[in-house]
Structures are given as structure tokens and as C-alpha cells.
## 1
Amino acid sequence: MAYPWSVRPLVESFEPYQPGLSMEEIRQRYGLSKVVKLASNENPFGVSPKVAEVIRNAAAYAHRYPQSGNPRLVRALASYYGVDGKRIFVGDGSDEIIDLLIRVKSEPGVSNIVAFKPCFGLYTTQTIFHGCELRQTPLNSDFTHDFDGLLSLVDDNTSLVLITSPDNPSGRLAPREKILEFAKKLPSSCLLVVDEAYIEFAGDPEKVSVIGDLETVPNLAVMRTFSKVYALAGLRIGYIILPEHLADCMWRVRLPFSLNIIAQEAAIAALADAPFREKSILQAEKGRTWLSEKLSGLGFEVIPSHSNFIMVKPPCSPKELNAYLLENGYIIRALSSYGLPDYLRISVGTDDDNHELISLISSFPGLK
Ligand SMILES: *Cc1c(COP(=O)(O)O)cnc(C)c1O
């Protein structure tokens, strides 16, 4: 069909993001009363009651525009991390930050962006959408990060290198020293972005995060989110600490009101709610250890995880196992879209979810 309007030809090559079946769809399709979603690395405890209260109160201000630049949230983050607020940028989820950073830092048709394969889907879609060349090198076969391979793709037109640690979907942590060594080898115009969406689950922050190295490594940025440990995925709040000049550039072009009033107040309250954060971290650590042991015992290959999920290779058809779990109300993540059709990713749930999942898997007829 011919349309009278024109569209960037590139746009026709995109497909809408496929989030998988919703809990409601699964409930209806299989006539289930209870559905458990362990597919999107969400926090199994739900929203902290303290934060829920703040969200209810913030509803009274929904008729107001947010303060442009979200200064209250920026100040809270600056004080929490002891960094200058001028280096902080906040966005409508990490998604908005990645999208904007690519556009701020890259020249269409000239710049290239370097990442691992597989990587977070948004790194690749936004790079291509903004007319930049995407360069990818495979992770090692055990899913550890191959920094030499990554470096071999970098040249003077590389605007960004995007890495995730702990990685999604493998759960592997890149050693901090390796990241720093790699950053120092990059051309000074190239920014290394470390996406630390899951770093809170990875152990002692001083040892595993590069956030303390931002002062000494000038071309380094660290991105984090309120979607995982803070249980606010639905409100869309991400932040990045980056060189002051780049933060300033991001603010110049960000849509003025992208991070809404309710999200901002929820984020400030969540940051202050240390007991909930600690409880969530403990659950991820305890749950992934328990699930890993049980699944190894059932013959699964388990990739060692530093995160709130585990990636596994079942000793049976992953497709059939996934279908069986769905029929019984358990949604986990197939990884074909990451190019890993032999693997599955399971988010750590509550103790009850985890126990029920393991007994379900144990009873799967396809498991010999
Ligand atoms: C979940 C996740 C994020 C967080 O994205 P938001 O847009 O902040 O919800 C970022 N990076 C990776 C790799 C993730 O898995």
C-alpha cells in the first residue's frame, strides 16, 4: 500500500519491542488463578510500603509540571554518592539516558558505537536508529567479558563503548580492574559507559563498582536504575554520573519534563529506604544461591550470577520446559532474542516462588 507521506526508510526495518506475554494473558489463556512472573528481573517484594505511601501523597501534585531538571532528585543522588550534582543526569528510565547519550555523543553516518554480543537490546536498536555504525564482539564462551576483543573494534570515530556489569542475561561481573585498564586504553574522546543496573546485587560496592573511579578516569560514566533493587520499574527512573561537560550537554537537549513528579518523589524516598534495599539484596543473594544449587542438582548448567537472576542451560529442550512452566503459571525468560536459544533466564522470586518453581521443574516430564 502506498502512503502519501514519507518516512525515514530505516524506520520500516524496526519491529516494536516484544515484552512477552503479560501475566493477565497467561492467566486467561491457561485458566489459572495465580501467575508468577520471573522474567524481567523485577523486585519480588513489590514496592516498599514507605515508598508506596510517598507515591500516594505525590498524587496530589499531579496537576503541576515537574521542576525542569529534577533538582530534588539530583541533589538526593549527589548527596547519597558524595559527587558533584553537576555530574548527574536523570532520565525516564535508563532507556531514555542511553537514547539521549547516543544522540549527544555521536554524529550520524560518522560515529560508531562498540558493545558486546549479546548485549542489552536498546544499545543496538538506538545506535542503528540514530544512524551510527554498531560494532560488536562476542563475549567469551563462558560469558566473561573479552576486553581485548572490544578494544580491537575501537577507532577514532568510536563515540561510546557500552558495557553491562553484572551482565544481562549472563549475570557475570566484569572485574573492576579489567574495566579500568580497558578505559585507560581508549581514545580520550571515547566515553566508556558501564551500565550498573544490577551492581547492588554484586557484593561490596567499593570492590565491584567503578563509581569510586570516576574522579580518576576522565572518560568513564556509570549508569544505574531504580527499576531493580528499588522496585520501581513501572515508574521509569534511571541516572548516570558522567563528566560534567557531557551532563550539561544532556540537560540542554533533554525533553524538559520527561521524569514525572510522582517518579521523582518515589525515587527520593526509595534512596532513603536502606532497610528495603538491604532486604532486596539479601533475597537476591540467597535466592540465586539456592536456585543455582537446586538446578545444578537437576542437571542444569548454571552461569555463576552476581545479580538478581540466573542464566541456565537446561538438560532438556528449553522451549518445552518454558511452555510447561507457562501452562503452570510461571513466566521465565527465553533468550532466543539474545541469540542464546539454548538458555533460559530466571529472576529470583520470593522464597515461595523459588520453591514452587523448583518443584514444578522437578516434575517436568521432559526432564530425565
Ligand atoms: C533492567 C536494565 C536496565 C534498566 O533499565 P530502565 O530503563 O532503567 O528500567 C538497564 N540496563 C540493563 C542491562 C538492564 O537489564
Note: The pocket of pyridoxal-5'-phosphate is lined by residues 41, 93-95, 120, 164, 168, 195, 197, 225, 227-228, 233, 238 (CB under 6 Å).
## 2
Amino acid sequence: MIPVFSPLLGEEELKNVNEAIKSGWISSKGKFIEEFENKFAEYSGCKYGVAVTNGTSALHLALTVLGVKKGDEVIIPNFTMMATALAVVYTGAKPVFVDCEEETGNIDVKKIKDKINYKTKVILPVHIYGHACDMDEINKIAEKHKLFVVEDAAEAHGAEYKNKRCGSLGDIGCFSFYANKLITTGEGGMLVTNSEEIYEKAKSLRNLSFGKENRFLHEEVGFNYRMTNVQAGIGLGQMKRIDFILKKKIENALLYNSFLRGVKGIDIPIEKSYVKNSYWMYAIRFNDNFGFNKKDVKTKLFEKGVDSRDFFIGMNKQPFFKKIGLQVDEKFPISEKWSETGLYLPSGVDLTKENIKYICDCIEEIKNGK
Ligand SMILES: *Cc1c(COP(=O)(O)O)cnc(C)c1O
């Protein structure tokens, strides 16, 4: 079976994990943490990094630092991973959904304005599958309405918008280092920013908001979102590979494109002229011309030894929102279409050219009813 993804780990990571264990620095103190924060923040075009337990906690911490609370609203795409919406729910604020655009699956910038009111505090775009959102337009809207911008860049390490890296384009950028992300620390995440004030606040809130004068007098409701030194050691090892991983992802995507471009009924991923797509996952859609729906394709691919994954299901369809009184009756036709027609194909960096050729041949066979 060709898996959808497998992480690339090796000697560098092992060496650092060994060192952390031998030195006894296995919790959240130790030399790897700051080094990893500095390296990754710099990579993402930011001055400061705050390493945390996962991407979800990075998002929650980011919104908390910006003062988001009950009674506020945060604008997010309807088509995203659940963590984006949950981070908003944790703060007590209300997530307000915006449909996605047809070409990229990213939040439809033209539809943001209609959702802004006096309660809106933050716009939280997500760079879906590694294609950057139109950040200039989003920042313009945010500036006009005095809103903060938090990027969910959990799928966009190394991706670029107008030659700037994702994560550095708003007030705060949030990353995940889950095993299937561009680089991994097992579980892990990071908040990056160019604001010293945000940085200091985030560091304090990450660590239970211990008092400055008297350590055991806490002025804020802090969290324990600390990353361990062991994880940071893995992350530092990954930083030595990040350029290679990104390059390989892009090469693989272009190879997939070359085989699938000519197949009628498939929408291959795009790359707008001002974007560098990181192709975190190679995500395609099957339109009516393909002749089979993606559910059939998924089953048949599996029978041929190729694993794949469905796209996200829209936030408006999530049962738990009803339970907490946040049901939306509004329709989100584009995001629905994306969910119904999209699959992502194996996207690991260990894929060979032959693997990719085989996967694309399988897709053609399926189209021809085989
Ligand atoms: C992976 C992901 C997250 C959450 O990251 P975790 O580390 O799993 O908590 C958030 N948003 C998006 C868009 C993601 O893909």
C-alpha cells in the first residue's frame, strides 16, 4: 500500500533526542527549545517564535493573546480543519464562517466584508493544503475595520505570498508540527510574530502566567502549552531537512500535475502567480466529466494499493455546533462542492517517480472503468 504520508526522520533527530535524554532536560527547559523557536521563526520570516504543544493550542494561544473572549466574533473559512473553529470556541467567542473560493479552496475574500460587525475581532484565514490566501486583500479589510489577522499556517510551512513566507503576513502565524505536517516534532506547534508585546504575552500565557515579581501570584488565566525539549530536539533536526522536504513536495506535485493535467474531469491544484504553493498534500478534485465520483475513486484506488484521504467537511455541517447553539442555516455551496469532490493523494517525500506514475496510471484506469 502506498500511504498518504510518512514522516522523514533520521540521525539528526535521534542525536538530539539522545542528547536531551542523557542530559536530563526532557521537559520544557533545555537548550533546544529557544534554538528551535529562533530557527523556525526566522525561517518563517518572523522575529519571534513561541513553541507550544500542538497547532490547536497555538491558535488558541494566539486568539487569547489578542484578547478574544465571549461576545466576540472571529471570521474563519467554512472549509478548514476542525482545529481552526475549535480554537475560537475555546475562547468563548463565536466562529463566523465564510465560504471558500472555487480555485484554491481558501476563504473567499470577497465574502468577508458581509460578515463583519461590531463584535468582529479577528480574521483567521487558513492557507489550505499549502496555497497562500490573498493576504494583501485580507490585511486591507482588517486595517479598515481595525481587526487583527491570525494566519492558520498549519499546512503552509515554507509557502509564500508575494515572496514572503506564510506565517509572517498577519499579526500572528500559527503552525502545527503533527506527524503529517511539512516538518514534525511528533506533536507540537508554534506561534510566530514580529511583535515583541505579543511574543512576551504568548510566552507568559503558555506557561501558566507565572508572576513576574512573585512567581506564585498569577495575574492571568494561563495554560500549560509548553513544548518539551525532546520535541524541540526533533524539530531542530527537521530544520536541517526542511528545504529538502519542501523542494521534494513541489517536485512531486509538478510530476503529478504533468500526468494528470490531460485527464478530463480532474481539477489539479493551482498556483496563483503571486504564490509559492508548498503542496503540503497533493489535493485534486473530480468533476462531472470524470465519470466516477470521488467515493468510487477512493475505493478503487485502495483496491489497487493506493491510499488517499477525503477533503474536510465544512464547519456548517459539524453536529457539535448545534449542541452549543451555533448552528448555521446558511448555505456554503463551494465548500460543499470541495468536500464532495476532493481527495488528496499520497504526498510523502519518500514517493518515487515510479510511485507517482503508478498512482496516475491507476486513476486513468479507473476513469476507463477498469
Ligand atoms: C493540522 C492543522 C491544525 C491543527 O494542528 P494540530 O497540531 O493537529 O493541533 C490546525 N489547522 C489546520 C488547517 C491544520 O491542518
Note: The first helix runs from residue 11 to 23.
